[in-house]
Amino acid sequence: MSFIKFENISKSFDTLKVLKGINLEVKEGELLTLLGPSGCGKSTLLRCLAGLEEVGEGRIYLDGKDITYVDARQRRIGMVFQQYSLFPNMTVRKNLEFGLKIKKLPKDQIRKEVDEALQMVGLTDKDNAYPGQLSGGQQQRVALARAIVVKPKVLLLDEPLSAIDAKLRKSLQTEIRRIQKELNITTIFVTHDQDEAMIMSDRICLLKEGKLEQIGTPIEIYTEPKTTFAAGFIGNYNVFEHSEFEKITGEKNVLPVSVAIRPETITISKEKKEEANAYEFKGKVVESRSRGNVLRYVIDVNGIRIEADALFRSFSIFQDNCDVWLSVAKHDCLSVEREAV
Fold it and tell me: 44-64 burial, b for 16+ CB within 10 Å, e for fewer?
């Protein structure tokens, strides 16, 4: 049974339709990521669940109850934004106490709950500091602690790490995932970063122009994209029209629709390998780009550019303008539709 259910949700701002009939269910205790480019509707859907935006059409259910028009303060939903939104004139402890005091809990219980939340986010030594005395990462952890200290039914995270540097961001990704699992709290995470979605999620919901494009586990989304948009957004697939793929392979009617190929499934070599059940074709290296321990080559094959990845090894680097052979297993050439069904 679903813990959160979006039923045919639509939302417009004046003449702009931002959400277009979204049907989505979230399981209790899972972390579901809403992924997609800017303007696809992911933050709007989150705000509709939180009660910060009123839906145009459809219903929202939480734990079996219709909350579509329930006041935001009555929904028991915690939310962390990109902006920390902390009270600058309050200490860390007082920021956390604020929501508990509104609930009129006993002082001893408030102290206990705040102590536990600070320990969970690793900030027990910062309880008397003010937000302005903390780093960006520490402030975001305070914001997370403030959201969970009131024991919400659902935790919403709206691109909370986008303003933080890359190294700290990876650390906080791990921390958020650890806390989410420890609390077993149903969580919806919004991001436009596919790598972040792959690391954080139990499932990923890919959105495009207000519609649900594809939903599945990170592995399913990465290895089995259903559309050209999903293939282009997740995994940096090469996506070719049917006619382009025929031109690359030199074979006719090999696949009836568009074809998607991940760069890492393509083997580059100086000689033709004569492999069974594989497509092999000759090309010329146009350029190469370093991606950490991987080199991404751009290769021209009959006027069509293909990206292929290889481990960064000094003894096997291909120079620009050199001729190479590419080989890709036929089962790694995926058929994809132009649009979501």
Answer: bbbbbbbbebebeebebbbee
